[in-house]
User: Fold these one by one.
Assistant:
Number 1:
Amino acid sequence: KAGVTQTPRYLIKTRGQQVTLSCSPISGHRSVSWYQQTPGQGLQFLFEYFSETQRNKGNFPGRFSGRQFSNSRSEMNVSTLELGDSALYLCASSFGRQGGGYTFGSGTRLTVV
Amino acid sequence: ELKVEQNPLFLSMQEGKNYTIYCNYSTTSDRLYWYRQDPGKSLESLFVLLSNGAVKQEGRLMASLDTKARLSTLHITAAVHDLSATYFCAVDPSTGQFYFGTGTSLTVIP
């Protein structure tokens, strides 16, 4: 079965621009979470969506936002990009919080110049 | 905030040797996961541990969970080069947020 699909795979943006990343979860999965991975900070939680509702949010500035659509696909948006936003952004999906763990997508590598 | 500590951060081991990676966490949780990440790639799920005393094995890797000690271990038996990767543990306190360890970068030397 198809896995978690993230697009685009690579992105280069200029400081001050905004960016939108997309995530299509595994069919049937209703929970989508986003993580930022950097060499210095490791894996940090951004937000979690379930049935179009944000259920949890990490400690990131308001420039980071997301949403989930009725088909469970999710997008995250970063406005006014900073150099420090350069990272691998990972999306993960699951059925819910029942404890089965999350399946991660291949990630979007964002570089801000 | 829940803290997850992994050690060692870096591990270089010879093929055929055994070693254990440790994952300690700071608050009660019955759910712990192990993931593998190859350079430039995403996270691949290795083990799902959902109760105290859980033990899972797959090939040369075995993971265990002691919720009372707030400790999980990932044991590597007779390492081979293909196991070279970064390994992460992640604690799930049922909030929808995983708390990841710092990762252990494993290099297996022929």
Number 2:
Amino acid sequence: GNSVTQMEGPVTLSEEAFLTINCTYTATGYPSLFWYVQYPGEGLQLLLKATKADDKGSNKGFEATYRKETTSFHLEKGSVQVSDSAVYFCALLANQAGTALIFGKGTTLSVSS
Amino acid sequence: GAVVSQHPSRVICKSGTSVKIECRSLDFQATTMFWYRQFPKQSLMLMATSNEGSKATYEQGVEKDKFLINHASLTLSTLTVTSAHPEDSSFYICSARDELDTQYFGPGTRLTVL
């Protein structure tokens, strides 16, 4: 079946450090891939997405590239800020009508000044 | 962007009572809505898929008689936790899908059963 695996946290970084959160997936066909962010006490927000191989999603300085050959969608940011502290979820949407997002377990990022 | 609301945001109830949670898409019509449950420090687990005008499809292991879902209109889905018990305490999140297949999430409802 379809699944998402992301690196376990917590990830603790200093401000302006480089961030990578690994995400790999298992799916039949060609799913769409997403990164969602959940700030403390809030609901999930879509951060970025990619719908086909080699697409790069980007938003707020975050990037992720859909790599079909390695079934990966790693999240990166060149210089993190304290305000980026949150839980990040990698997710996939199978290319079938009526399906729901399948989430990874989430990675907690904590950035200190 | 699209907005999805949930009400209430937080509810505390006694064991044995029923609790209704509403999920509304505020600026778009959603033929499909989803209900998730999130345990502390864990991911979102899909509970059921709710299609307007038809019965919900429940994931394996989710009791349909305990978690009643109604999707009576294109902008409203409700989840009723019947005869709630402490083990039902959790964070319940709904999402609504628009015509471009993008899912928007509500802010969640924190249920605490005493």
Number 3:
Amino acid sequence: EPEVTQTPSHQVTQMGQEVILRCVPISNHLYFYWYRQILGQKVEFLVSFYNNEISEKSEIFDDQFSVERPDGSNFTLKIRSTKLEDSAMYFCASSYDRAAGDTQYFGPGTRLTVL
Amino acid sequence: AQSVTQPDIHITVSEGASLELRCNYSYGATPYLFWYVQSPGQGLQLLLKYFSGDTLVQGIKGFEAEFKRSQSSFNLRKPSVHWSDAAEYFCAASNTGKLIFGQGTTLQVKP
């Protein structure tokens, strides 16, 4: 069964450093998402992406964040200058359609620790 | 503001016992509703979803959920829990594509 993969599984970085989290969505999916979960808090939507453009973003997704689909398979989330409060589990998801009811398939997550 | 609430942070049940996990939503109109499960080291896996029609939805792994509009609820149930059901369960809602999640319920299963 196709699945979404994410690398690395755990990333440790120093405050102020740039990080890139990578995701490989399911191959025929067209819509891509990033969510995050700070320890002990809810899973929160960050951004959705379609046709090489951001479709929607949350208030969390400020200028420090960017997303890119650099080739036909990868979908990346970049944090330019990490802060302590960026420490969280980051989930990538993909779906074939962007309809509200379409199933989003999630990757296993990348745990980001900012020291 | 749109929100999803799971009142129970942690639930413990005995193996073989029945299970009900609660979920309430607050939306202007009835959203699409989902239940996801996350086992350690795994991604979020969809158990079931509700769009419209029959208010009792069947999902994978023997789970079902009932939509009750009057109570703004979408509770997840399973008649007999197995030890492998121990995991974290997330209720989520959507009416635009992005998912809004509840805070999750951790299920522990006693032998």
